[in-house]
Design goal:
The complex is a heterodimer. Chain A is an all-alpha fold. In chain A, 80% of the residues lie in helices and 0% in strands. By secondary structure, chain B is mainly α. Chains A and B meet through helix 2, helix 3, helix 4 and helix 5 of A and helix 1, helix 2, helix 3 and helix 4 of B.
């Protein structure tokens, strides 16, 4: 390890070989980018499908049947997860841009993002997924 | 530095176009924090998404000009934010002449989606 580097010393053995040493900032960046691309892709499909409400309502309704299916509900949850993470982490970025002094606390802010994500996301996922077995009754 | 907040794009120096895009990305993000999360809450929690047929959208969801204005505003804001975000992704991974081509396609796609979304919001008859 280079002198003066803040990288943690690598562990020995298998755990050391597979251990991730990029830090919270790199993971936050990767998740932000992946969730952003995913939401942008959904947005394209969403706008085109909403256009069909006026242009071809029957075709829209046939596509819309997917939302009522179990895979559709799982997709809704995944979309919500991507949207919620992107919104929360994006707010963390904006906060650090507006108040650069808070950059020193970026790890703590990232933990707040995850606590908020699971506090809001888990009940939300339960509400959406519970409709699968409610409709199956 | 390990653990540096890499998701942040540094603020561009000067007063040029890049600074405008950088600020626009953040202002639209703040607006979308409210608009997009509220939209998801209404369309996935308040109402079961499986009941939202074309007729339901016409009779319930878009039965007021205010609701249509909010959704159209969100469409414009989200497309600006999405376009600027994807522009950054393209600039990171596509280089040279191909970058100009992909960015051109991205701008055409954005303009097309804004046109399609605006068309349905403006032309769907009020019930």
């Amino acid at each position: 390890m280079a002198r003066g580097s803040t990288l943690p010393a690598p562990r020995r053995g298998i755990r050391g070989a597979i251990a991730y040493r990029g830090g919270e900032g790199m993971v936050a960046w990767a998740f932000h980018r992946i969730s952003g691309i995913a939401v942008s892709a959904f947005l394209t499909l969403h706008v085109v499908s909403i256009f069909l409400v006026g242009a071809n309502p029957e075709f829209y309704d046939s596509l819309h049947l997917f939302y009522a299916s179990a895979p559709g509900k799982v997709a809704e949850v995944l979309l919500g997860a991507a949207l919620l993470y992107h919104a929360l982490n994006g707010t963390r970025i904006v906060v650090m841009d507006l108040w650069p002094a808070l950059t020193a606390y970026h790890r703590q802010l990232w933990r707040i993002v995850w606590v908020t994500f699971f506090t809001l996301g888990l009940p939300g996922a339960y509400i959406i997924l519970s409709r699968i077995w409610e409709t199956a009754k | 530095m390990s653990g540096a907040p890499r998701a942040r794009q540094p603020r561009p120096k000067g007063q040029g176009r890049e600074l405008t895009y950088w600020l626009l990305t953040r202002y639209t993000a703040l607006a979308l924090f409210v608009l997009a999360l509220a939209h998801y809450t209404v369309t996935h929690f308040v109402y079961d998404s499986s009941i939202q047929t074309a007729e339901w959208i016409k009779q319930v969801r878009w039965n007021s000009l205010a609701a249509r204005f909010v959704d159209w505003s969100m469409l414009v804001i989200v497309m600006i934010h999405s376009c600027l975000g994807m522009r950054t992704v393209v600039q990171d991974y596509v280089k040279g002449r191909a970058q100009d081509v992909v960015l051109g396609l991205l701008y055409i796609l954005t303009a097309t989606l804004v046109t399609l979304g605006s068309h349905v919001v403006l032309t769907l008859p009020l019930s």
